[in-house]
From TrEMBL:
The keyword Transcription regulation does not apply. SUPFAM superfamilies: C-terminal effector domain of the bipartite response regulators (SSF46894). The keyword Nucleus does not apply. InterPro entries: Sig_transdc_resp-reg_C-effctor (IPR016032), Tscrpt_reg_LuxR_C (IPR000792), WH-like_DNA-bd_sf (IPR036388). It comes from Raoultibacter massiliensis. This is Helix-turn-helix transcriptional regulator. It holds the Pfam family GerE.
Length: 473
């Protein structure tokens, strides 16, 4: 799988595919941002817009169930070819169709026919986009993936600003069109992708990065707590400041990624987690006379940073795990969702039991230190990010390493080792026979013996297995 990812990274890094991925991803995020920012849109449709946000009712259950099912299905299909096109089409149809149903219910005042909760169920399948776009990020290298997330996130906030200046009908049309464009981008990327080879996951790949994913979930707990305590000071949260914070954070990091001659490592990004949480906590609890703009902006920066950092960690986890990317991202999203739900539950419990401000601050700070110093420790994130070694058939050192590891692991003979090296380089049977001066039947015999030793079922399986041994120890 490593060599397929490497070749796809090269393909997707080139414009206009990178542009299509960034805009398509941004359309999905923008659809969600519009649903989360009803106060910035027309009062005529504000209540209807708010229903497109995934709440805690039946739609949340369907939303999580869709993620779990697709993640399990991708894991079951890990050794076979399967097209992402039907999933992309289904995500677009249900998300756009559900959004239309919600607007129609509100416009026709037909809640007695189609209740709000029932009309929200189709948009729950928007969660399919998370796995689809998360997998697309795995086809980019580190710098390009970060820039793609930053551009997409910036587009999502810019969509809110742009739509706020439109008439109500145009605002509704923009939100309906967003998932359609997102699916169209996914279909375009899928059409440009070469035929997929069966994915062979190396048994020697690092273990699943559960520690990092739990850290993201706990990060979510803290951000939800800070947001809940801050919004408890007012009846009208300032959503505009959140949008401004989003634009500033995304623009600043994007400019930094362009200006820096080197890639901005995930380990560096992890250093900013604790300062952001501490600053946000300070502003939330420093004043008791209503919600202040500075605390809204600080929490907005923390929330946006959580979203950006989450995609980067999920991508790293997917590339460093022996589980298919879709399955890895599904687990990551379910853990993050559990964290945000836990954050709301903890806030309710603290409020009901009258927890003191000192106790609340202590709990948040201790949890933040735990996240920054253990779950998302800089050294651990760096090791996780540097784990997989991309395969390059033109890099003789990597080819030799693959073959040496295979020889040690499977006991290849000298002639089998020579054949393995040429297979790893991508040579065909004629080239192997000419270079080694062997007959066709002799080559077939050696290949059968290698299949038996490695438990491979075909030439393609054998090549993928050999190329996956770049980091075997």
């Amino acid at each position: 799988m490593v060599d397929r990812i490497h070749s796809d990274q090269t393909r997707l890094s080139k414009s206009p595919l990178f542009f299509i991925a960034s805009v398509g991803f941004g359309c999905y995020l923008g659809w969600g941002m519009l649903g989360s920012s009803p106060s910035l849109l027309s009062p005529v449709i504000a209540q209807t817009v708010s229903r497109t946000a995934i709440g805690d009712g039946a739609e949340r259950v369907v939303w999580m169930l869709a993620i779990a099912v697709l993640g399990l299905w991708a894991f079951a299909k890990r050794h076979t070819n399967f097209s992402r096109k039907p999933i992309s089409v289904a995500a677009g149809i249900f998300t756009a169709g559900g959004t239309i149903a919600i607007y129609a219910t509100g416009a026709l005042d037909a809640e007695n026919i189609l209740t709000p909760s029932l009309s929200q169920l189709p948009i729950a399948l928007s969660s399919l986009y998370i796995l689809l776009w998360g997998e697309q990020l795995c086809l980019l290298n580190g710098k390009q993936a970060l820039q793609c997330v930053l551009i997409a996130s910036f587009i999502s906030f810019a969509m809110v600003v742009f739509c706020s200046a439109l008439p109500p009908a145009a605002q509704a049309a923009a939100q309906i069109a967003a998932p359609v464009f997102s699916s169209a981008a996914l279909l375009c990327l899928e059409a440009k992708r070469p035929d997929r080879e069966p994915e062979l996951i190396s048994e020697n790949a690092p273990k699943f990065p559960l520690r990092a994913f739990v850290g993201i979930g706990l990060f979510g707990v803290i951000v939800v707590l800070l947001q809940s305590f801050s919004e408890g000071k007012t009846d009208q949260p300032n959503e505009l400041l959140w949008v401004i914070a989003g634009l500033i954070v995304n623009a600043a990091l994007f400019l930094a990624s362009i200006a820096s001659p080197k890639e901005i490592k995930a380990s560096f990004l992890s250093k900013l987690v604790l300062p952001l949480l501490v600053i946000s906590a300070f502003f939330v609890f420093a004043t008791d006379f209503g919600q202040q703009n500075v605390e809204v902006f600080a929490i907005g920066c923390s929330w946006i940073y959580l979203r950006l950092f989450t995609w980067i960690i999920w991508r790293i986890g997917a590339l460093s795990s022996n589980v298919p990317p879709m399955s890895v991202i599904a687990i990551g999203q379910l853990i993050l969702t559990a964290g945000t739900i836990a954050g709301g539950t903890i806030h309710t419990a603290m409020t009901d039991f009258g927890a003191s401000q000192l106790m609340t601050i202590a709990f948040i700070c201790i949890l933040g230190i735990l996240v920054a110093m253990f779950f998302l420790d800089t050294r651990y994130v760096a090791e996780l990010a540097d784990g997989p070694v991309p395969f390059d058939p033109e890099d003789r050192a990597i080819c030799e390493r693959c073959v040496d590891n295979a020889t040690a692991k499977y006991g290849l003979s000298g002639q089998e080792r020579a054949i393995a090296l040429m297979l790893v380089r991508g040579d065909d049977n004629d080239s192997i026979q000419n270079e080694l001066v062997i007959a066709t039947n002799t080559l077939r015999t050696h290949l059968r013996n290698m299949y038996k030793k490695t438990d491979a079922h075909s030439r393609e399986d054998l090549v993928l297995l050999l190329r996956s041994l770049t980091h075997h120890k």
